[in-house]
Amino acid sequence: MEDSKILLSQLSYYQVVEVMESEMGKILVAWLFGALFLMFMYCFKRSRDNASLVRFPMLYMDEVGKENYLLDLPDLALDSILMKLSPANLSRMSRVSTTLRGMCTSDHLWERHLKRKWGGLIGNLAYKEWQWSIASRKHQITIECSKKVGLVASFWSNKSGNRGMLSSTLPVDSIMALYLSLETGKFWFPAQVFNRENGHVGFLLSCYDAELSYNRFWGNFRARFSSEGRPTLEPNIDWTRLRAPAVEAGPHTLHPSDCLDYLKPGDHIEIQWKRTRHIPYGWWYGVVGHLEPGERCRICCECHRSDKVVLEFNQYDPGSRWRETIIRRSNHREIGDGLHGFYGGIRKLYNKYEISMWQQQRQPEAM
């Protein structure tokens, strides 16, 4: 009888433990789901409030020990902080929140970085090419929108300027988009390259028009251009061999020579030249020489009064048919033939920086 009572008490004890373990598991599961639900509601609430989405604690405390937050700073102070960020850090900061995205993608911040790195290379032609690229991209977005959503969605996207389509992406017409497109090499822009074919002797102290793409891993460029009607690609072009186009007219257009009346011996010039009539012009560097050799002509120089102007290209050896040519001030047009090539428009170089860029392209043996 007593043994049966002990067995009954033991069974009751194990049953009680089993019940407690099952109840504890249920409590833990309920607590876990409750915590996840509260976390979800907290994140949802923070995402609804852009101003409180990113409240980064700063590395200082106020007098009463209350935390200070980045977005609590005045706009002028916050803008001053953002202006000191590098392009990479500014791009990272723009992905943190909606509020910081609007501030970090503003044009006035990226315009400084664009001018600092690309200002000497991106000219008016490149900006026009970029605007054409923007218009083409917006047109493509409109077409894709009409295909996916229908004519009604296309109507509303056109009416709103594609704001709904681009609300979660970077605006295509922002300066930040231009900077990133240049930095990643996605945007091929027009520029001019000195000393074609890596300094080939036949192209020494010349530059040609090309489309360039940047390689950020190697810090150099590749250029594509047309060589006698064939598409050509030249890689590994250094920054020192590049400049923005000297004139907005294309390489097939004769540049109007508006400096002929003022040319005198010793002036630095660049002139359009091409080997055959049906290929694009390049620009060649030269100086204005004297009509007659000798020290007497240099002392009592009257060359600036003559209608003839001697152009010297000292990068070529004496006796070369490209060493010099003579043009007329009064009626200068494209001159030349199949043997000597065709000389086009002339630019006088007034800027010392332009002259120094040409002189830096001299090879050691040509100096």
Question: Could you name the key traits of this structure?
Answer:
disordered N terminus; alpha+beta; 367 residues; 41% helix
* Overall SS class: alpha+beta
Fraction of residues in β-strands: 15-25%
Distance between the termini: 122 Å
Shape: elongated
Q: Please describe the biggest sheet, giving its number of strands, its sense, and whether it closes into a barrel.
A: 11 strands, antiparallel
Number of helices, where a helix is a run of at least 4 consecutive DSSP H or I residues: 13
Which radius of gyration do the C-alpha atoms yield? 35 Å
The parts where pLDDT drops under 50 for at least 5 residues are 1-11, 48-66, 151-168
**SS elements, strand count:** 13
Please give the share of residues in helix: 40-55%
Rounded average pLDDT: 78
Keywords: Membrane, Transmembrane, Transmembrane helix
Domain F-box: 67-113
Organism: Daucus carota subsp. sativus
Transmembrane segments: 27-44
